[in-house]
Structure formats: C-alpha cells, structure tokens
Design brief:
alpha/beta, Rossmann fold, seven-stranded mixed β-sheet, 5 helices, about 25% helix, globular, binds adenosine-5'-triphosphate, binds magnesium ion
C-alpha cells in the first residue's frame, strides 16, 4: 500500500512527470513504521541547506518522521531519535549532513528563541527540522519545506509536503 502510493507520488515516475518542486505531495501512513519508512524515502530529496517545518498536533508523528530522516542520513539510529521537548535541540551528525531536530513547543517569546541561537546552526551542510516552528512567523517565511501531519482515525496519518 505504502510503496504503491509512493510510486504514484514519486517525481520522475512514469505517472508523475512534474518536478519535485512543482508538486504538492500527499500520502497516508497507517503505522509509525510506515511513517518512518516515508521519512527515509523523503530524506533522499532533502539536500542541505534546508529549513524544514514539521507541523501537526501533539502526537501527530513529527518526531516519528524524523527517526526515518535521521536514519537515512546515517546520522542516528531510529531508536536514538527522541523528542527534544525538554532539551529543545538535538543534533545528529551524519557523514555529510548535520541534522538539527528542534522543538519550540515550550518556547513562547522572541527572547527565549534568541537564546537558542538557531541561526548559528544554519550552514551549507545542515538541515533544521523544526517542530512547532509556525509559532514564529519568521519561520513560516523562511522555511524551504513544510511537512504537515494530521491524524486520520486511530493510527492513520495524512502527511502533506509543501515546497
Ligand atoms: N501512522 C503513524 N505515524 C506516526 N506515528 C504514529 C502513527 N500511528 C501511530 N503513531 C504513534 O503516534 C505517536 C506519534 O508521536 P510523535 O512523538 O512522533 O508525535 P509528535 O508529532 O512529535 O508530537 P509532539 O508535538 O508531542 O512532539 C507515536 O506514539 C507513534 O507510535
Ligand atoms: Mg515531537
């Protein structure tokens, strides 16, 4: 099911001729494992530098998706990717890409945001994956890619990619 959907979705497939950047893509996963697999596939299309916003309610699957992305870059094992809810920034270094997984759920003011010095993390080989970044309009303006996850009944997640 997942692979069929990806085939349809995948740019360059005989069924989808428009380029990656021109398309808005959408997929529904039915388990955490499928979301991780999707994250792995998606990583192939994420070349640094990038600022990626991960949007969705609590428990929507944002961190779960990062597990697949980090694993695909050889930056962390799936099980080692945990929520940066309290630490706010997790760094995962891969052979060619540095991933920064950031959670701004507990950050409310510009002053608090400044203390994280996120600009210092941006470099030619870095990808910032930010949960709850939409709280700050600046990130909505600057983001390269937006990934939104929405619950679809019990364990279904509708995932949409913009950018
Ligand atoms: N299709 C699915 N995709 C992703 N996660 C799923 C799916 N079905 C069930 N789950 C479960 O939902 C939970 C998602 O949690 P996760 O920490 O990834 O959410 P989150 O969006 O990062 O939340 P938060 O905003 O609290 O950080 C996990 O317990 C995961 O096992
Ligand atoms: Mg999370």
């Amino acid at each position: 099911m997942l692979s069929l959907s990806l085939y349809w979705w995948w740019p360059g497939s005989p069924l989808g001729r428009r380029s990656y950047c021109e398309m808005n893509r959408e997929i529904t996963t039915n388990s955490a494992e499928e979301t991780i697999a999707f994250g792995r596939a998606l990583a192939e299309k994420l070349t640094p530098p990038k600022l990626v916003l991960l949007r969705g309610d609590l428990g929507a699957g944002k961190t779960t998706l990062v597990k697949g992305i980090a694993a695909a870059f050889g930056a962390a094992r799936e099980d080692d990717v945990t929520s940066p809810t309290f630490t706010l920034v997790h760094e995962y270094r891969g052979p060619s890409v540095n991933l920064y997984h950031i959670d701004l759920y507990r950050i409310d003011t510009q002053r608090e945001l400044d203390t994280l010095a996120l600009d210092d993390l941006r470099s030619e080989n870095s990808i910032l994956l930010i949960e709850w970044g939409e709280k700050f309009p600046r990130f909505l303006r600057e983001r390269d890619v937006e990934i939104s996850l929405e619950r679809d009944e019990e364990s279904g997640r509708r995932i949409r990619i913009i950018g």
